[in-house]
Amino acid sequence: MGEAELHRLISGCLQQNRHDQKMLYKAFYGFAMSICLRYAGNRYEAAEIMNQGFLKVFTNLEKYNADRPFAAWIGRIMMNTSVDYYRSNLKANRTGELELADNIAHDDLPDQKLKYNDLIDMIQRLPNAYRTVFNLFAVEGYSHEEIAEMLGISIGTSKSNLFKAREKLKGMIMNAESRADIKPGEGDFRIVTISAVSIGVTVLINTIMQ
Amino acid sequence: MKRPDENKLDKLFKDGLTGSENHVPFREDDWQAMEKLLDKKPERKVIAFRWMYYASGIAAMLLLAVGMFLLIRKNKPSTQPPKIVKQKITPNNNYKLETNNDPSGQQLPNPAASLSANRKVPGGQRVLSRNSNPFLSLSAARIGRYHNKLPKSGSAGITDSVQATFSDSIHKKQEPILLAITKPAIADSAHTPHKDTAAAMANKPMPKETEKKKLKPIVHSRPQVTLSILAAPDVNGVGSFGRSQVGTNFGVLAGVQLTKKLAISTGVAYAIKPYDTYNADYNSSFQPSVPPTNIAANCKVLDIPVNVSYQLFSRGRDAFTVGTGLSSYLMLRERYRFDYALNPEMQPFNLNITNGSRHWFGVLNLNVTYQRQLNNRFNLLVQPYYKLPLTGIGNGRVDLRSAGVAVGASFNINPFGKPK
Asked: ipTM of the assembly?
């Protein structure tokens, strides 16, 4: 979308033009959803968070500084809305201070590239507290001090949550790898064998009964 | 912001997840949910602490109402002393006397007369000439004010003829009004020889003690203002109390006794309302396609009740009253946990809303109060109550009912100080 078109849409949204609101929503839907999906536990939660974020966008549009990229502003709102959504139960997972977060052995991870859907699935399977810290640290690039301040938790808790998130993600990746190691066709062979044995037994029983 | 370390796992996710907007196709359903949010925006737009402005507005209006009520009550006695004085004096045939010498000054029928007498005391003829001016007899307040000065400044200077004129005018013009106030008194005074009363005026001033005695009942009828502090455990349930949870309430109420039996009260209560509900009873704008099996909620609510109560029974120190009214719920903080027990892969989802919806007069209050007087100032209160919503409460628009027993104390306050 060009700058001129974006400014026109923003002007329309400021006048509460529903059509322009939809166009803006549609234009940034994928971007906003991609952020919310990795903070949310599932797609439905992500959609709810995203809509709450867009509501903030529409109601605070007059505060947007046109000198800065619009996408960055929306992205920031989506991230903050996501964090706010899960802030309540972040402290519940406090397990003491751990300094091991950076010591997870990651060299033994396979070099293969996982698909986007697999990555999203794995990250969504993390508990909320681990997922939020992992996102902020690994994807957004915040430090533990910044994360602790943003979430109202201690630096130790932030490190602990990152450690556990990495541990769980690594386990998921290794499991995915082992499943992928099963040779294609091996499963088919087993099914054919079982079917043949079943048919043979059935024929044998029929023969005896006669 | 720091660069994350070169952890391979982090990099895998960062590279795989960023720039992934093309992986998410647009869904019309999401926009429809968004439109619902936008349509609700005016009432859902949250501005921090806005509820405080509304609460102060309500408090100001209530104060104004109570103030006006008290003012009216306060003004009433000022019109009553004539009645009392008249009743006292009438047996002595002093009707003429009291009209000129009454310190309260309420008896003079014609403001023009009093006004003239006050300004130009010896000019009795002028008084007479103004007697007929209808414009000057409009302000009742002035009557009293000007006439109050009459005995001090000019009673000695007023000639008999002027007094006689006053008495005539009183009988001609004031009689119907006085009849309306005190019939028996006027019945006697109607036959009073006026010139004799002028003489009696000088000899028999109004006894003050008697006046006080007569005033006492009026003072007693002043409204009592009470301040109550209440705390209550209650049960909260959606639709019924089948899956109820126990909540707590703390509140401060101010009450005004309108009559011996009727009182109004208002105040503010902070309530914690936990409850469990099924998805079917939870009507959020966003309807997920995977419905949660249970929704556990915990809401912090500011409850602003306006209640009327009627005393059913009173004996000795004990009293029973029944009350009803409407409460406004201002949702301060709402926490919802959506559980997906049928789908183990889906983790519970938490939704937090701060300063959410406001339900003005959206809850019906029903209560019965047992009151035990401890001393002149303090009363003990036990109040079973039931709160029935007239509108959906909170984000889920649930039929949130509450029933509990409030326990507390009330403190009697007299806004005018102790009655004299």
From this structure: 0.77
